[in-house]
Amino acid sequence: MTHDDRLFLVTGATGRTGGGAIKLLLQRGHRARAMVHREDERSRALAEAGAEIVVADLHDLDGMTTALHGVTGVYFCHPILPGLVESTVIFAQAATEAGVRSVVNMSQISARREAGSNAARQHWLCERLLDRTNLLTTHIRPTFFAEWLTVQWERRGGEGYLRLPFGEGRHAPIAAADQSRVIAALLRDPEPHNHAVYTLHGPVEQNHHEIAGVMATSLGIPVHYEPISVEEFALAMRERGHDEHLVQHLSNVAVDYQNGVFAGTNDNIEKLGGQPPLSVEQYVRQNLSAFETSGPRFVPAP
After folding, report:
1. pTM for the model
2. Sheet of 196-200, strand order
3. Chain-centre distance of CA 166, in angstroms?
4. pLDDT tens-digit profile of 182-228?
5. Across the chain, which distance is largest between two alpha carbons, in Å?
6. Pairing relation of β-strands 154-156 and 159-164?
7. 73 pairs with which residues across the strands?
8. Full 3-state SS string of 25-79
């Protein structure tokens, strides 16, 4: 157990990466403040675990100023929604005024100047903005989360289906829990990682046919990968009412994926987080209940 006077703020504290990071910080004896949009059973669980709770909005300068008071380091995570650049500017100003020392910034592996996705290009711009502050800044760029398999999965007739626009592209799925360990470690020791950009991958690079095969073995049922067009994927998202910002992002991400932008693997998770990342097989076996029903974004067969 570590006991010191540092206070860490975790935005998106009820999400997967933020929630995991704040629990790890608390387990190590650190003071942690959870920034949430509302008080509910999730925020109450964090409070019971020992976290301070602050209700604030990333787009509200006064709210962010309050949330950052007395804070040493921040995990900054914006959802895939409009307003990333504005919220990063607000954070940078409020953090500077508050004397915050460091930030771990959740970016994307597709973040680059020439990105077709508006969200990915905005992440690249926000990285450059944070690099120009006096904050010790570390950017993490994960490939596709392992959790996406549960979101985009269909359970039908005792079999599983992944109908996705990823062609024969490859990646090494990375679990949120593994990212949480990296985030917590970077918050605790930011100095060696200032201005570093870390891509985060799982242990094994696979295409979706191979991923489906691993899932089938782990679940004990047939699992099929059916490549579809980007257009069919985008239409299904629009029919479910997803906003155009997300549709535009994921449509362009699918093209990036086919072109190898999400591919590769490395040992960053183990080096930074202290233990090897979960494989797809391990993730599925640890989350069997998540595959008992269809996820919220699966694309139904015609």
Report:
1. 0.96
2. 52-55, 31-36, 7-10, 73-76, 102-106, 136-142, 196-200
3. 19
4. 999 999 999 999 999 999 999 999 999 999 999 999 999 999 999 99
5. 58
6. antiparallel
7. 8, 102
8. HHHCCCEEEEEECCCCHHHHHHHHHCCEEEECCCCCHHHHHHHCCCCCEEEECCC
